[in-house]
Amino acid sequence: MSLPVMTRLLRLGVALLMLCATPLLAQDFPQPADPYVNDRAGVLTPVDEDAIRAALRAARSETGVHITVLTLPSREAIAPGLTLETFATALFNDWGIGDATRDDGILLLLSMQEREVRIELGRGFASQWEGVTDAIIEKTLLPAFREGQYARGLKDGAVRLVEEVARPFAAGEAPARDLTGPLVAGGAFGLFALLGARRRIGNLTTRLRRCPNCGERALRRSRITDMPATRHASGKARRITRCGSCGWETVAYINLPRLKTGNRRSGGGFGGGSSGGGGSSGRF
């Protein structure tokens, strides 16, 4: 093949690649009004939205992992011709979800008209984490959405992302196998949340102790961050131990150390993270 012919073929190939990429590059994606919840489809009440936002803000403060929820009336109206996976990846990167160094962002996307849901993971998550997100979609999100319970599905899905992805990932743990089944049995979910909490050893020890009030082994421990630590000031948190059998409760107050220089866990917006297309999808 002569050099001029090869040159023309090369130019044609480049032109075709640019043509294919143009729809993706030219998209005018919706910009976030909030770093944690953007309910553009209007499926959440203000109370539901505030609850999800508070949980995701606390999780980011404690783990550094940034999870954001987005609902849309229709993704096709925004980016005609793009698949759900391509759309989610492009929007994820346009927003810059997660820390730019760790690439640990998570996007929970619901598209109402197309009846689709997607959990998009940042580049920092190995492919093994997709087994966890597959289970969250199949056993929590899709069953609720098929019943029209969008708020319940998003709230429960957000909780599972925090407990089963963000916390173990931040602790350097491997993805857990899905042994819980659907999240309808409060005891099974409570046990998984217990084992997946940031203070795994302390929580396990608490579970084995008997309640000082009723004697049952039903103690659960959780932590609430009242004032996140920053690089300039320490923070404050509460460690709550509660009996699931009789309701006995005790509270311990904790001082959180200042963040090290460069730590971006307390940032309020998006951190410049990116995704390579990992995650899970489903239709309802």
Task: Tell me what the structure shows.
This protein has 284 residues and is an alpha/beta fold. Helix content is 39%, strand content 18%. The chain has seven helices and eight strands, in the order αβαβαββααααββββ. It has helices spanning 3-25, 46-63, 84-95, 130-146, 150-170, 186-196, 200-208; strands at 37-39, 67-72, 106-111, 116-121, 219-227, 235-243, 249-256, 279-283. The strands form two sheets. A five-stranded mixed β-sheet has the order 1-2-3-4-8, with helices on both faces. A three-stranded antiparallel β-sheet has the order 5-6-7. Strand 3 and strand 4 form a beta hairpin. The longest helix has 23 residues, at 3-25. The protein is globular, with a radius of gyration of 22 Å. The model is unreliable at 14-26, 180-199 and 258-268 (pLDDT under 50).
Topology:
Blueprint: H1 3-25, E1 37-39, H2 46-63, E2 67-72, H3 84-95, E3 106-111, E4 116-121, H4 130-146, H5 150-170, H6 186-196, H7 200-208, E5 219-227, E6 235-243, E7 249-256, E8 279-283
Parallel strand pairs: 1-2, 2-3
Antiparallel strand pairs: 3-4, 4-8, 5-6, 6-7
Brief descriptors of the model:
284 residues, alpha/beta, five-stranded mixed sheet, three-stranded antiparallel sheet, 7 helices
How would you summarize what this structure contains?
With 284 residues, the chain is α/β, with parallel strands linked by helices. It is 39% helix and 18% strand. Helix 4 (130-146) runs antiparallel to helix 5 (150-170).
